[in-house]
Amino acid sequence: MKKVKYYYNTHTLKFEKHEVPLRVRLAQTFGFLAASIVTGVIIVLIVFRYIENPDTKLLRKQNEDLRDNYTVLTERTKQLELKMQELETRDNNVYRSVFEALPVHDSARVQDLAIKKEVSLILSLGETDLVKSMTSQLNNLSLRLAYQSKSYGEIENMVKNKEKLLLAIPAIQPVSNKDLTRIASGFGIRVHPILKISRPHNGLDFTAPSGVPIYATADGKVDKAEFNGGFGNHVIIKHGYGFETVYGHMSRIKARTGENVKRGEVIGYVGSTGLSSGPHCHYEVHRNGIPVDPIYYFYQDITPAQFDRILKLAAAANQSLD
Fold it and tell me: Among residues 317, 316, 237, 239, which one has the least CA distance to residue 283?
């Protein structure tokens, strides 16, 4: 029940009922509402400023964890980057050098990365700069690792072919020469015994009686086995990997064109056919089409001491036999 208020009217000397005017009541109501709103706003500001709600607290915790993880990942990425550089260096300077393969230039790796689209695809998804930076580094590293894996695959194939390569490299003398007395003329400018002019002598001359066996110095395929005016009866063997050997002035050819031969297999016999002044075997080694000194391709046949001796014998400035 609403309480009724009275007041004493001094003019009428009576107690009269106290009634508040409508405008006053409206003013009081609006004043109360305004004060409530202002108080509410102040309370909300205080709550949002100093008191975290569960969602904000969770996001803040996740952000802190993200930054901690980023620091750890950045350090790990630096370590992987150093390992990657070490692998690339070993790939170029060690592994490929063993197999005489050309090193992989850095630009090749960069071009390979440019072909890939993973990085640009991921970075276009609208992540934060923090995540974008991390994603870019990891993707770049993963692509480099993929390229390096491809390079090691090539090296693995080189390892498998290494045995074939070793068999294809000339490694013995073309005639039996245990006492090292059969080298008559070395590699270089020599006077031709018949033409009597100085000209390049692109091989070694091994003196021996007619009919002494001549051996293939490496595995390969006979490219030519025929008579030639200068070399007379001669054999040319292609060994692969850029190697080719020539055997000239044979009395008789045993090998046949197109035939596969093994190192140490008899391919013909010493003679003096063609432009020759006496029985001998003229022997040449070609590397990528260029004649090279055969004396450096006897590593399976002589000792280091014998190599020093044979080097002096071949260096003597004398007349060749062809």
Answer: 237
CATH of domain 183-315: 2.70.70.10
The 10 Å Cβ neighbour count of residue 2 is 4
> Which residue ranges of the chain lie beneath pLDDT 70?
1-4, 6-7, 18, 20, 47-48, 50-53, 87-135, 149, 152-153, 155, 158-159, 191-197, 315-322
Nearest CA among 300, 283, 311 for reference residue 166 = 300
Per DSSP, 55 falls in state H
CB count within 10 Å of CB 9 equals: 10
Single out the residue of 221, 224, 219 nearest to residue 234, CA to CA.
Answer: 224
113 CB contacts (<8 Å, ≥6 apart)? 119, 140, 143, 144, 147
The single residue listed with the structure tokens 């609403």 is 2
Q: Answer whether 139's CB lies under 8 Å from 122's CB.
A: yes
H/E element, 36: helix 22-50
Contact status, residue 306 vs residue 314, Cβ threshold 8 Å:
no
The pLDDT tens digits of the residues spanning 195-216 come to 666 777 888 889 999 999 999 9
CA angle (211 as vertex; 210, 214 as ends), nearest 5? 105
Query: Within 10 A of 18 (CB to CB), how many other CB atoms are there?
Result: 9
Positions of E strands within the chain: 6-9, 14-17, 183-185, 188-191, 198-201, 204-207, 213-215, 220-228, 232-240, 243-253, 260-261, 266-270, 280-287, 290-292
Residue 221 near residue 236, CB atoms below 8 Å: no
Would you list the domain boundaries of the chain?
6-50, 69-168, 183-315
Paired tokens of 304: 């280091």
Contacts by 49-52, CB closer than 8 A, 24 or more apart: none
Quick count: other Cβ atoms within 10 Å of Cβ 32?
10
Provide the β-strand partners of residue 206: 183, 281
